[in-house]
DUF2795 domain-containing protein
Amino acid sequence: MKESITLGRVESRLEDLSYPVSRRDAATSLDGVTVLMADGNADLGELVRNCLPAEFADAKDLYYELNNAMPIEALGEPGQSDGDA
């Protein structure tokens, strides 16, 4: 199933998984989910594959790791700092 979600909906989408979940199983479940980011789009399954832990205890754990795995440009407007807003 192909779907597109914004960054703001990622955490709620992660809550659909059963935990604990392995990185591999989470990535497979999230393949085809496109995340719309400030600097373009990315497949959520592929982003999960870029996370370091082999297993996630809950959705918050996975969400935290995803934020560490994403490029900083993905989280806001490219080239804009908090002070520029």
Remarks:
- The first strand starts at residue 3 and ends at 6.
- The CA atoms of residues 29 and 74 lie 22 Å apart.
- The two ends are 37 Å apart (CA to CA).
- The chain has one domain: 3-76.
